[in-house]
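In this supplementary section we document a worked example of the pipeline. Step one takes a protein sequence of length 401 as its only input; no multiple sequence alignment statistics are reported here. Step two produces a three-dimensional model, which step three serialises into structure tokens for compact storage. The input and output of this example are shown verbatim.
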Amino acid sequence: MAVYEVLVSLIGADPPVWRRMRLPDYARLPSVHRLIQMVMGWEKIHMHEFIASDRKRYGAVDEGDIDVEVLDESQYALSALLGEPGDRCLYVYDFGDDWVHELQLQSISEISSQVLPIWCFEGAGACPPENCGGIPGYAELLDSLWDRANPEHEDAIELLGESFDAEAFDPASFNDTIMSLFANDAEKLIPEEVSEGMSVLTGLRDFLESEAVPESAMSVMGLNGFFAALAIHPETIMPQFWLPLVWDVSGQPGDPEFSSKKEEEEVLGLLFTYYNSVMRQFSADPEGYYPLYDDLEFESDDDRMLAVQDWASGFMLGVMIDDEVWERTFRDQEGNRLLTPFAIISGMFDDVEDIGQKQLEEIKSELPDELVFSVLDLQEFWKPWRQEYLARRPGGPESAG
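The serialised model returned by step three reads:
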């Protein structure tokens, strides 16, 4: 089965709004329209059309429609607009707000019948709200949201919500929906890891322990702590900054030695699925979060302590990923106090002269059961900072001068 890897970008959006997804080449344009609506976050309440590179237009055509310039999209597949890597076309939604999306074909590959032909690998940027005035109206709306002195600030909060993150995107919701749509034929269409009963964690563990990555790659336990820190971080850390640390905690550049494009897609799919599950946990029910080591059984207390140390090391790596946030938190008396348990467990304080080894081990033995509460306390500590960091992003009130 031939599938396209397509980059869908909302032209002019700031912060950028884009999705990288897999689509079957045979998908009819009405289906492509529905899938773009789903993955972008639109509500499918306005008209749309596709515009090919030769300027031919494709849209929903009623019988007897006199607009002969618009071709009936139901008669054409995606392959009619995109044929070779590098090809581009446009998808326009809402002829009033004119949300123009560019679809760029990045690659063509063959997949087995055990792999879902539709999938979203990654993306960025929240979907703008319907009927907000297009790109200019959305920019004004974000200005109002970020600027408390703006007379439209309260209206923006009412429309978007106080916690709206213009840079956030979670592909898991789209992928979950796709998997549910194919549930009746799960054995053939759900990815191999799921159809064979292999958990996300098992798939990640097998890859991270393989020769495809350096010995300094993160373990799954460290990954759980790392993602927990990113989830509560006052800054939204984009994948291009945290992904290299997964492959090598030293931060050395370089990608894993994937055996094929298919393996790369599957591993990244597992990784982002796990990342998004941790993000959703802290967004929807932070008090329900438990570190991974609390969900596992260990043969000995020493084994459990090693797992806790691994988790805490990953967490500290996530905390320290932004130098400014790390230094500001560490210099703050309360922030320093909240970070201390993680630093002790991770081994950062092992060489501190005024803490004896025996005392240090006693402290370590008492901390693992308290770390989950420390995570939530640090999340609360950072909450007031989040709006401040949001305001400093491109388009925010401070950057606007």
